[in-house]
Design a protein that fits this description.
Helices cover about 60% and strands about 10% of the residues. By secondary structure, it is mainly alpha-helical.
């Protein structure tokens, strides 16, 4: 993409963000009539629709197909899915206040439902307000949950790019603005949880007001939608908020552990003359232990804490390395050609398993077993097998081998 086209693309993306997000949700071919309907829905003036379509095509946001149809550029769709569908962070304080407003309206609905004479207009207005608030909380809360989890994931994945202090600052900011106020919503002893259960009961009670519902079809429709949204908030959204709080707590603990470990390591490296001064202590060495994974941060932190407080001090000693012994591959692995050459050189062997054990005694047991059974598994045109009515027994390190004995003979008349 050239620079002018890229600038044009950014300008359109900034000016027509909502339009581009909506058309990216279309997976099929867009007809011109459908595209014009989208433009009208987003308030584009009639005289500007055709020029805007041309601009979207020139910026490669729309790709024109046959029969005046359009498809959205797949690269733009991926871009929108990555950034726009990540959810939107909102102030958790605002979200908490909205849910507490729901609790206040619940009390008003209770008074109106159990009044001496039910006021249909007042009940309908209260249900309208509740429906609007609950719908806003459901949509905003779902977006907030997705955005919070992605934000925490971004902070966790930025370990190699940002210093620990920067990550702690970002997490503490997110904790204060987007997470901490949610604790009040998931607290069973708080204001919201008992009220949401109370609102469930009132909506159920409203469903038994046959006369009242018969007078207003809109009231019945709002009641059903309100019940559905309340079920989602109670069973999905609040559990999601609890997951956010737990994830943030775990991430904060791991960052503090990492910071403590790095601080301890930095102290040791900066004060080597003090740390290694007490050489009369004994270095603890764990022998005969195979470590299959990295030591947890808690273990490493405890080790460096012992070093800092001089409870564990090393006694340096020179390292000794045994030089590797060089040997040929033929001395470790028996090749087929080596086995055939051995048989050819001997000519006639009455008991091949016995011969193989003695001849190849310097090899590993796996190689000896391979040599014993090779004439049985891989026929050779110049080798004749001679089966013996005897049992061959051989003690191996892990098992006892029992097999029928046999001999081999090299036939010279096959030689070329």
């Amino acid at each position: 993409m050239t620079m002018p086209r890229f600038i044009h693309f950014l300008t359109l993306a900034r000016e027509q963000t909502a339009l581009i997000v909506d058309i990216c949700a279309e997976s099929d071919l867009l007809s011109r009539a459908q595209l014009l309907h989208y433009l009208e829905h987003h308030g584009v003036a009639a005289g500007l629709k055709e020029s805007l379509i041309d601009d979207l095509c020139q910026a490669a946001i729309l790709l024109e197909e046959h029969n005046q149809g359009f498809i959205v550029n797949p690269a733009v769709v991926d871009l929108v899915n990555y950034y726009e569908r990540r959810g939107r962070l909102i102030s958790a304080t605002f979200l908490r206040d909205q849910m507490l407003n729901i609790a206040e309206l619940t009390e008003r609905l209770q008074r109106e439902l159990f009044a001496t004479e039910a006021d249909r207009t007042a009940i309908l207005d209260t249900i309208d307000n509740l429906y609007r608030l609950v719908r806003e909380v459901r949509e905003a809360g779902s977006e907030h949950y997705i955005a919070c989890m992605r934000l925490l994931g971004d902070i966790k994945r930025s370990g190699g790019k940002q210093p620990i202090e920067q990550r702690l600052y970002e997490l503490e900011t997110a904790q204060r603005r987007y997470i901490e106020p949610l604790r009040a919503l998931i607290d069973p002893s708080g204001d919201y949880v008992p009220r949401i259960a109370q609102l469930h009961r009132h909506v159920g009670e409203l469903g038994r007001q046959d006369v009242l519902l018969a007078q207003s079809q809109e009231l019945d429709h709002r009641r059903l939608r309100l019940a559905s949204d309340l079920h989602f908030i109670d069973h999905e959204l609040l559990r999601g908020f609890a997951v956010i709080v737990d994830t943030a707590r775990t991430l904060l603990r791991s960052l503090f552990d990492e910071k403590s470990l790095k601080d301890a390591l930095a102290f040791c490296l900066a004060h080597l003359d003090q740390v290694w001064v007490a050489l009369d202590t004994t270095t603890l060495v764990a022998v005969g232990r195979n470590v299959t994974q990295a030591t947890p941060l808690e273990g490493q932190e405890s080790f460096f804490a012992d070093v800092v407080h001089r409870r564990l001090l090393p006694q340096p000693r020179a390292l000794s390395i045994n030089q590797p012994e060089q040997c040929r591959a033929e001395d470790l692995v028996l090749s087929e050609s080596r086995i055939w050459q051995t048989i050819a050189a001997t000519g006639n062997i009455g008991s091949w398993p016995t011969f193989a054990v003695h001849t190849f005694s310097g090899y590993a047991e796996e190689e000896q077993l391979r040599a014993m059974v090779l004439p049985l598994l891989r026929p050779h045109p110049q080798i004749t097998l001679m089966l013996n009515d005897q049992l061959f027994v051989h003690e191996l390190s892990t098992q006892t081998l029992h097999m029928h004995d046999f001999g081999v003979r090299w036939e010279e008349h096959y030689a070329r």
